[in-house]
Design brief:
single chain, outer membrane lipoprotein receptor (LolB), chain A, twelve-stranded antiparallel sheet
């Protein structure tokens, strides 16, 4: 808060000056008290849930979706940003990563046959999982097996997780498989669709991935 020094008026008597400054002090004490009250009452109650992994017969696949958004990656070695398109179907994923100017950085496809990554130079790389492949080729890991759930505001049923939920029942954080997922914004609720994550941040050690979804299309 910026402090403004008010000069005493030369026509004020000493008694008037005293009462004036007392009035000012009382005013600022009220403002300070109101600010403290707003901070305390505005604190959001969070409930933490501890969720064990589901049994093999109770594992649900992540719902199908097709989304467009923006991505930024930051760790001790790099800081970059761009956009992405991700189409997820049961058992199959296709992710396109673009520069801020729209040039393709990589195309990632995942399915029963494995994972393939094609670079902008049309070099193709194969692996068993997306996380190890992206870390080797792009320099940062993309946790696709968990992210297909996290991006929809739910935890993966494959492993144990901790989930923070606010008083409205909305997920604000998930901690799973060494990752922390923070949900900072949701889309407004619509008549036929619930709120969906709009902005989320993924943290793993010194790696931070921020995703902002511009368009949700849920199958």
């Amino acid at each position: 808060m910026k402090t403004i020094k008010l000069p005493a008026h030369r026509f004020f008597s000493h008694r008037h000056e005293v009462w004036w400054w007392l009035l000012i002090g009382y005013f600022f004490s009220l403002v300070s008290g109101c600010a403290s009250l707003q901070t305390q009452t505005g604190a959001e109650a969070i409930n933490t849930l501890y969720l064990p992994p589901a049994t093999a017969t109770a594992v649900d696949s992540a719902a199908d979706f097709n989304i467009l958004g923006r991505i930024s990656i930051k760790d001790r070695n790099q800081s970059s940003s761009g956009s992405f398109r991700w189409q997820h179907l049961v058992g199959n994923d296709e992710i396109l990563l673009f520069t801020p100017l729209g040039q393709t950085i990589a195309e990632i496809t995942s399915g029963p046959e494995g994972v393939r990554l094609i670079t902008s130079k049309l070099e193709a790389f194969h692996a068993k999982d997306v996380e190890s492949l992206t870390e080797e080729i792009l320099g940062w890991r993309l946790p696709l097996s968990g992210l297909q759930y996290w991006i929809q505001g739910v935890h993966s049923p494959l492993t144990g997780a901790e989930k923070d939920v606010n008083a409205a029942g909305q997920v604000v954080a998930v901690r799973q498989d060494g990752w922390q997922i923070l949900y900072t914004h949701y889309t407004p609720a619509q008549s036929n669709q619930p709120p969906r994550p709009r902005v989320l941040e993924l943290v793993y050690a010194d790696l931070k991935i921020r995703l902002a979804i511009d368009n949700w299309n849920v199958e």
